[in-house]
Amino acid sequence: MYRILIVEDDDSIAASIATHLSGWGYNTHCATRFSAVLDDFEAWDPHLVLLDITLPFFNGYHWCQEIRKISRIPIIFLSSTSDDMNIVMAMNMGADDFIAKPFELTVLTAKIAALLRRAYDFIGESSDRLVVQGAVLSTKEITLSYQDARLELTKNEYRILQVLMEHPGQVISRDQLMEKLWETDLYIDDNTLTVNVTRLRKRLAEIGLTNFITTKRGLGYLVE
Asked: Which residues form a coiled coil (predicted)?
């Protein structure tokens, strides 16, 4: 499930956005500490940020710049100040889109879905590393790093993590994982997959990534 951080100081607008997006299957969090938005960002680890321009303490441009120092996730500005100058400034600060208030929630949802597809569906094709929850999978070195720890991965461990981390928030079926593992020269059946996932979870827990891989009974696995 994709996580969306809503940085909007109008409680009614923030609540209506959160309720609407939750109905579409998104996991939402509304920032409340507008003097420490970056703390909320790092704690929530969202896949996308909705950011108002006019905020208490620091404006949205400031927080966009701060987020861009540590992340390239999609950012959509929401603002009633929709003149050309503000739109240009938002894009120059690193925003991916700008939506003028008032707006239709259906339009906002469509823009969010489009940005998430572009940002995450094909991430594995253009990046030599995948990052989820602070865990970094190196597609060149076949390693997983988290904080100060680093795991040398087996071929199967790497392929399992690669598929899951290329699609954060999405359930990957056991059949899809087995199909990926079949690309190796090893025989993989349902029991073998279970053994591989169990062993991988144990190794992840040893470096602090407990419950990194979630099981959706009858559906498959995901990382969030």
From this structure: none
Tally the domains of the chain: 2
Domain membership of residue 166 as a residue range? 125-222
Where does residue 59 rank: exposed (0-12), middle (13-18), buried (19+ CB within 10 A)? middle
Domain with residue 40: its CATH number is 3.40.50.2300
Dihedral through CA 210, CA 1, CA 140, CA 186, nearest 10?
80
Average pLDDT over residues 160-164: 90
Measure the CA–CA gap between 119 and 2, rounded to whole angstroms. Answer: 12
DSSP string, 124-150: HHH-SEEEETTEEEETTTTEEEETTEE
Taking the model in full, what pTM does it have? 0.54
Strands 75-79 and 48-52: parallel
Q: How confident is the model at residue 197 (pLDDT cuts 50, 70, 90)?
A: very high
